[in-house]
Amino acid sequence: MRARLTCVLAAALASFLLAPGALAATRSAPVAALQIALHVRGLYDGPLDGLAGAGTASGVRAFQSRAGLPATGVLDRRTRLALGPLGRPLAGKRVVGRRMAGWDVSVLEFELVRYGFDPGRLDGHFDADTRAAVRRFQHFAHLAADGVAGPTTFRALRRAKRPRSPIGLAWPIRRRVTAGFGVQGQRFHPGIELAAPYAAAVAAAGDARVVWAGWRPGGLGLTVELAHTAGVHSVYGHLARVDVKAGQRVVRGALVGLVGWTGESTKPRLYLEVRVRGAAVDPLAVLR
């Protein structure tokens, strides 16, 4: 298994060097783990996106030179082991939990993000945020939600179907997207942000029941969360005013609040998140 994975990684990076752009759409958890290990050493400052590219290969060459290895830019077993604690062990070889670190934790963090569960900072360290994300994924995958990741959880991350919304939602406000869904820097951004004038009306994206209406800890400020059908939820953050109450039924297009900049925001904008059975999905794939 170890030899096969090493060959796959080496081939991926070598393919990039031979044919730039060929891997543009191929995301790999092992490549993301490599990016995390290089980032910690100050040798990679690109996105932690699992895409093998020029920045990743350059970081590998710089590390190999520093470690006294042939600077091929290709990840082989010697290079991975030389990365130290963040270069081993391979995913699924042990049960990982609180206060542990390693290549497998980095792989775990990236795979959780791909399923829409936020593990906190992508840094190869299993902390409270990672544990919470593992529990949420385990619940999503119908596993025992014990908050630790062993072979069963890693297998589920490889095999479970990634979440997709079974319903479409309407735009709550028609404005320019200023921040997209996905990994930004070392963190996962589970929603999108829409630039909008202060006090602009925010509409319900679909018929729903209000499950949260008020201040929400964690940076979103005044927030409304709606539960639609089929396990789909929509979340509206940074509001200036909330116009609904928990338990209330609303119809598509109903006023739920006004755009503001409450929470961790310095200018008017609407934060929008869509979740399917607890997993964040790209709102742009759901909005109609």
Helix content: 25-40%
* Total number of helices: 7
Structural class comes to alpha+beta
Distance between the termini: 44 Å
Q: Round the mean pLDDT to the nearest integer and report it.
A: 91
Q: What global shape is seen?
A: elongated
The overall strand count is: 12
Biggest β-sheet: count, sense, barrel? 10 strands, antiparallel
Order of helical and strand elements = HHHHHHHEEEEEEEEEEEE
Percent strand: 15-25%
CA radius of gyration is 21 Å
Low-confidence stretches: 1-25
Describe the structure.
There is one protein chain. With 288 residues, this protein is of the alpha+beta class. It is elongated and about 65 Å long. Strands 1, 4, 5, 6, 7, 8, 9, 10, 11 and 12 form a 10-stranded antiparallel sheet that branches. A two-stranded antiparallel sheet has the order 2-3. Helix content is 28%, strand content 21%. It contains 7 helices and 12 strands. Mean pLDDT is 91; it is low at 1-25.
Briefly, what is this?
The protein is α+β, with helices and mostly antiparallel strands.
Topology of helices and strands:
Elements: H1 2-18, H2 29-40, H3 54-66, H4 77-82, H5 103-114, H6 128-140, H7 151-159, E1 177-179, E2 182-184, E3 187-189, E4 192-195, E5 201-203, E6 208-216, E7 221-227, E8 232-242, E9 249-250, E10 255-259, E11 269-276, E12 279-281
Antiparallel strand pairs: 1-4, 2-3, 4-11, 5-10, 6-7, 6-9, 7-8, 8-10, 8-11, 11-12
Helix pairs in contact: 2-3, 2-5
Give keywords:
alpha+beta, 28% helix, two-stranded antiparallel ribbon, 288 residues, disordered N terminus
